[in-house]
Design goal:
The chain is an alpha+beta fold. Helix content is about 60%, strand content about 15%. The strands form 2 sheets. Strands 1-4 form a two-stranded antiparallel ribbon. Strands 2-3 form a two-stranded antiparallel ribbon.
Length: about 140
C-alpha cells in the first residue's frame, strides 16, 4: 500500500475486506482470522488516517452465525473514503511493477532483500551485545 500510511498487515486485510463489501465488524471477523477487538482497533486506526468512515446504527440486527440465528446490537458499519481508493491504486501500481519483472530479476531482488535482512539482524545483535557490555 502507500508509504504515506503506516498500515500493518491487519489494517490492509481489513481495508481489502471493506473493499470487497464486508462493511461491519461481524462480517469482517467471520471472513478473516481477526478477532472483534482487532477489527475495532483497525477501524479506529483507519478512521484516524482518513481511509474509512464509521457509522454506528441504532437498534439490533438478526443474522445467522455458525448456522444459528442470532440477534445482537447493530455493529459499526464502514465505508471507504476517496483516500482509501488512492491507496489501492498505489498498491496496484506496485504489484504491476513486480508482475512485469522476469523470474531472474525477482530471484535477484529476493536474494538482495535476504542479504539486507541478514545484515540488519547482525547489526541488531551487535547493538544488543554493546548494550549488554555497557551496563
Amino acid at each position: 500500500m502507500s508509504d504515506e500510511y503506516p498500515l500493518r498487515e491487519k489494517d490492509l486485510a481489513v481495508l481489502k475486506k471493506i473493499r470487497e463489501g464486508y462493511d461491519d465488524v461481524q462480517k469482517i471477523t467471520s471472513e478473516t482470522t481477526l478477532e472483534n477487538h482487532e477489527v475495532n482497533y483497525c477501524f479506529t486506526k483507519l478512521k484516524n488516517l482518513g481511509l474509512i468512515t464509521i457509522h454506528k446504527p441504532e437498534g439490533y440486527t438478526e443474522r445467522v452465525v455458525d448456522r444459528q440465528k442470532r440477534v445482537f446490537k447493530a455493529p459499526k458499519r464502514v465505508n471507504l473514503t476517496e483516500d482509501a481508493e488512492l491507496v489501492f491504486r498505489d498498491s496496484d501500481r506496485k504489484t504491476e511493477k513486480y508482475q512485469e519483472m522476469e523470474y531472474e530479476e525477482l530471484v535477484d531482488r529476493v536474494l538482495e532483500l535476504e542479504t539486507q535482512m541478514a545484515r540488519l539482524q547482525q547489526s541488531f545483535r551487535d547493538l544488543q551485545e554493546q548494550i549488554r557490555e555497557n551496563r
